[in-house]
Fold Lipid II isoglutaminyl synthase (glutamine-hydrolyzing) subunit MurT.
Amino acid sequence: MFKINIRFYISVIASKIVMKLSKTFFKGGSNFPGKVALKLNKSILKTLGKEYKVILITGTNGKTTTTSMVYSMLKDSGKRVITNHTGANMLPGIVACFVENYKFNHSYNGEQYAVIEIDEANVKLVTEFISPEVITITNLFRDQLDRYGEVHTTLLKILEGVEKSPFSTLVLNGDESSLGDIPAPNRKVYYGLNYGLENGDNLDNNADSKFCKKCKNPYTYNFITYNHLGDYKCESCGYKRPDLDYKVDEIKELSREGSMVLINGEELYINQPGVYNIYNSLCAYSIGKVLGLDKNILFDALRKQKSSFGRQEEIKIENKEVKIILVKNPAGYDQALSTVALDSRNINLALMLNDNYADGRDISWIWDVKFEKLSSLDVEKFMISGDRLYDMAVRLKVSGLEEEKFTLCESYDKLLEEIKLCESDVVYILATYTAMINFRKYLHSKNYIEKLW
C-alpha cells in the first residue's frame, strides 16, 4: 500500500510540474502531462476518479458542446464540478484533467462531479478504472474512416467500454438507429425529436445508417430530422425507435441566434443555433434529469449557454463579427451549412481543410457535403485555406459556386488580411479540428483571442 501511494504521489507531482511548464512556455499541454502520469502509474485514474461522480459523454458529433452544457447545469446547481474544457478527450488528456484538479491534503465532503468528454475509442480505457454515473452516446456518423472504420465499428468500440461498467445509466439518442436495443444490462434513458425537419421521409443517398442493424433490410421513416436520425422502423423484422423519455415535441423557431422548442410539453429557448444544438441541449437536459437536478436550473442554463471554443465561438477582428465553427464529417458539415443558412445577411465564408491525424488523413468525405446549398446564400467572398486548400477549392468549384469569389489563402497572415478586407461585417469560419486549433493559436498571438483554452 505504501509503495502504491508513493508511486501515485510521484506521478501526480511530476505531471503537475510538466503541466505548469507546458502552460508557461508552450501555451498548451493538455495531453503530455497525462502521458507522464500514466508512464509512472498506469492505474492512476482509479485513484484520481474515485471521489467523483463521473459523466462520460461520447459520440461522433456534439461532445464538446453537450459537455459544456452539463458542466454549466451542475455548476449552477451549486455542485463542485470539473471538466476537460480544452476538448482533450483521449486517456492522457482526461488523466491530465483529474491531475490538474487534484489537491494534496484536501478533503471535500459534498458531492463532486466530473463531466468528461471522451473519444469513442477511449471509453474502454477509462471504464477499466472508473465506473461512471452516466455514459452518454450522442450519435454515430461516419468520421475519420481511416481511424474508426464504419459506424458499426465505432459503436463496437464504445460498447467495449460500456460492458466494463454495467451499473452506469446510459443516456442515448433514441433517433440514432444504432443505439436502440443495445445488448447491455444497464438502465437506458432515451431522448429524441418528435418533430420532422427534412422534406419527405426518404433517406438521402449519403445517409450513414440506412439498413436495419438486426436484419439488414432498409429502414422506413415516419419522419427524418437530419442525415439518418429520426423516427425509424424496419418493416421486415419490426425493430423500431424506442419510446422516448425526454423529447422535443415542437420546434417553434429556428434563427441564427438560437431556437425556441417544446421539451416534454414545456417551452424552452436554447441560446445556440442549429438543429444539432437542439439535440445537444436535449441530451444535456436528459443527463440533468437523470442526475436529479432541478428542471428550472436546467432550462435557465440552456437559455444562457455560451459557445465553447471553436463551436460557434464569436470573436471580433477589428469591425468584423467572426464566428468559428468546427466541422469534421459530412453530417456535421451539412448541419453547419444549414445553420449558416439561417443568417439572411450578406456574409463571408472562410473554409479551412487540414488532413492531420486528428482530422482524419482521408479527405474524400468533403465530396459528401452538400456545398451546393451555398449557391442560395448571399456570400460575398469564399476564403479557402488549410493544408488541403486546393482540394477544397476544387470541391467548391464542382459544386457550381462562382470562382471569381474564391480567394486562396496559403498562410494565416493572408487569411487574416482577407478577413479584414471583407466589405460586409459578417464572417463564418468553417474549419476542421487542427485548422481550428492552429488558427485560434495564431489569432491569440495577434491578440484577437484573449483566452486560448
Notes: The first helix runs from residue 2 to 26. The chain has a mean pLDDT of 92. The longest strand covers residues 246-254.
